[in-house]
Fold:
Amino acid sequence: MNDQPVFRKELEQYMDAYLPILYVDTLENGKVQDILTELAVQKGRGIIKWSLHSGYEDAIAGLRYPSPLSGALDTILLEKNVARKILVLEDIAGELESPAIVSRLRCIAERIAGGTMDDCTVVLLSPLGTIPRALEPYITLMSLEFLSPKKIREHILHFLESNDMPAPVEELLDTFSMHLRGLSETEIDNILSLAVSDDGQLDASDLPMVLRQKQQMIKKSGILEMVTVKETVEDIGGLQNLKDWLRIKAQIFRDVRRAKEFGVDIPKGVLIAGMPGCGKSLTAKAAASMFEVPLLRMDMGRLMGKYVGESEANMRRALQLTEASSPCVLWIDELEKAFAGAGAQGGSSEVTTRLFGSFLTWMQEKDSLAFVVATANNISHLPPELMRKGRFDEIFYVDFPNQGEREKIISLHIGKRRSADLAKIDVAALARKMKGYCGADIESVVRDGIEAAFVAGKAHVTTEDLQAAIGRTHPISETMKDAIEEMDKTYKSKKFTNASREE
Structure:
């Protein structure tokens, strides 16, 4: 049974449309070759293959000989036995760095597009590398589908049945199916073999192994970062509206099968905008903890490449890895820096616009359990398309903490460091003196006050120690007064949902 119906359909459509070069970003060459063989038989077409290890091979013509790619392409350019053929070139990424190879491929593509090479298609099989500018107009990028949780579920059951092992309970089976998403059948089989090798069964104790496999995959990419999460929702002082909203989405995430059966939409994500140092990044980490899934961080600096098409390829890879790692939370910090300039003309702005377009399309169409938490300080630099309905489920505005929230934040930071002193400290008085302080400012005051008390040789930290620290602190509302006032006007005019509950 074909487990790649969408890929197979697209491949057939592209071949029928005589698109000259199809670049399949894959490590599963065998699976693609099987689909190509099926299509070739169906359409009465032959296959010519080239790879580094086997050279040139035309089974129908009875030709097979070691050859560098340049020689194989020269043979094809001579139009020997190429009519109605699919030209499959493996291990191609490194070869595209050669101007001579690029020139030959471009010549073939032009002949196919011009109709002088009858019913031919070039298929490149390789992990995606840099696409030369000269080939961009002729290349169509493709990728295999991820196995669906349903298919993975069937694969797990088949594996266990083949080895006379009991199936886990339904809930655990669903969990494994979700966490194994993005892995190949071979990788899944390897993990399952390791999982059952110790006790002859698949159980909850084997789940960490899956997470380690995902971590390896992400680490090797060099594009995304898997963040270790220690923070919980209890570490957030205030932002009650936002926390309540996240709790609802987390409940759906944790029971997604029943939620979907009930007609509930899968949560897409949230944009948290507002003042610097007020808990936006902390909320992203706490969300991953609430959802009980890994946290991935996208660093736009890592996506930007120096070669033509490299940045776009990195974005595609990042989104594919996110899909493969789902269920997960994808954290995009300082979103305005990532997509500032999108829509403008020329140079880096055009690259940013293409990256922005890829991201928007993914956000609009994704149905995976990848929940996006995007944070931004100044949304005036963001394209308005990003804030339309259908992108994020909700947009929250984070203001400076109110009196009650400041009290909670002060108590949290003192409690972590000097819990025994907390009862004797006038937290309310301190909070009143720290109006206009962000969460980071408050934490700095607590650290400074405790440090000063220690250096002075005191046995306890007092209210006076912390009041003295306040006097030495210049909050962000002072140091960035003009920018803060402008941001405040912008956010209030947008009428975003307030992350805090009114006192």
